[in-house]
Structure formats: structure tokens, C-alpha cells
Amino acid sequence: MTDRDADKRLAADAAVREIRDDMLVGLGTGSTAAYAIAALAERRLRIETVATSEASAALARSLGLIVRDFADVARVDVAIDGADAIDGVLRAVKGAGGAMLREKVVATAADRMIVIADGSKRAERLGATKLPIEILPFARRFVIDRLAPWFVHCEERPDYRTDNGHIVVDGYGWDDGAPEALASALMAIPGVVGHGLFLTEIDAAYIADNGIVTRLERERNPR
Ligand SMILES: O=C[C@H](O)[C@H](O)[C@H](O)COP(=O)(O)O
User: Fold this and answer.
1) Architecture of 126-195 per CATH?
2) Is position 134 annotated as part of the catalytic site?
């Protein structure tokens, strides 16, 4: 296990310690979230889960966790998920694994949303990280054209579909001075179904650097 993987596991273990019997837990997607899923399974709590991707659902079930269909769920107690970049005020970019739309739904449904990460994910500025945008395939060309003013360049992921059957375009070189404006502008383009900017959803983060876990809490939750 690399140091980075060890830190992912430490952050995941710390977050999973918040989980209690009878909770409904949102399972994130990606390599860090996978450590949380494994840690949850190891604890053998009396919990149920919902998953933000088919991959996480399959992993959780293979480890013996109960995974409910989120379509039948209105709220979640705690969601635990990774991030591609997270800043000091708990704003994040997610979606390198293409799961950002379901992740945002589950994060918003959760009373408490916890990000887990190794220290490489700390970011002074979010704009240095590519921003994934999920797009209705029908609107592909139209949306890419409308995205152009907001990014230095955009790249469509080749031969790729999300669990929702959509395509993903990664936007590089974006102005992170007013991310709320970018988030609103993206969602105002018909055919954009989601994006990886998480500006208000995250309540806490456990970030592990070289074996030391730091917990960050949102001081004032504007939701
Ligand atoms: O779509 C993927 C998710 O947003 C992941 O949570 C994110 O990309 C972090 O993944 P990892 O823990 O593998 O770096």
C-alpha cells in the first residue's frame, strides 16, 4: 500500500467512526470511498446504505452491506464520499470517476455530507482541477459550444457513458473567482444534467496527510 493509499484509508476509517446503528448511509464512489465501504462492512453495524454508482453498490453488496434503491429514498443520515480537490472552506470538485450527478443527489439528501481525502486533494484554488460536466448525449454539440466561454478548453471523454447513460465533458482552465456564477451558468444550459462543483453540500472533511488526520467542519451551513 502506498502512503497515499494509507492516508485514504485513515481518512475513511475516521469518517466511518461517525456511523451508528440504524443509520441510512450514502456510499460515495472512487478509490477513497471504497476504503469507507470496506471499513463500514468491517464494523458490522445494523445499517442500510444507498450507493452513488453501480460500482459502489456492487462492492458494498459483495462485502455484505444492505444497499437500498435510492429511488425509494428521500433522506439519508450521513453520506461519505471522496473528492478530486477540496479547499479550506469545504468547496470541492468531484466527478473524475463520472459519478458526480448521483453523488450530488445523495449529498443533498444527506443530513451530513463528509468528504474523505488524502492530502493531495487539498487545493488553494479549485480552478486548477478539471471540472467534469454531465451532458445529455442528444445535446452534445450544442452544450459543448455553450461551454466554450467558461473554459480554456473542453474535452469529451471518449467512448464513455455515466451510469445514467450520459456523456461527460471535462472543462480545463476555469475561473474559480466566482464558482457560484459558473455553477449557475452551467445548470442554465439545457442539456447539462450535472457538474462536479460542490459548493454548499459538504458539511465536514477528514483529510489525512502522512498518517495525520485533520477534521474540517463547515462553520455555517448555508443550505
Ligand atoms: O466521480 C467520482 C467521484 O467524484 C470521486 O469521489 C472522486 O473522483 C474521488 O475519487 P478518488 O477517491 O478515487 O480520488
Assistant:
1) 2-Layer Sandwich (3.30)
2) no
Cβ-based neighbours of 61, under 8 Å, separated by 6 or more:
67
- pTM as predicted: 0.96
C-alpha to C-alpha distances, 109 to 7, 25, 177, nearest whole angstrom: 27, 11, 27
Distance from Cα 32 to the centre of ligand 1, integer Å: 7
Residue spans of the domains in the chain: they are 3-122+199-212, 126-195
Report the C-alpha gap between 43 and 107 in whole angstroms.
22
From the candidates 54, 103, 180, 201, give the one annotated as an active-site residue: 103
Distance between Cα 68 and ligand 1 center (Å): 21
Residues framing ligand 1 (Cβ under 6 A): 28-33, 81-84, 94-100, 103
Just give the CATH number of 3-122+199-212: 3.40.50.1360
Tell whether ipTM is more than 0.95. yes
Q: What is the pLDDT of residue 220?
A: 64
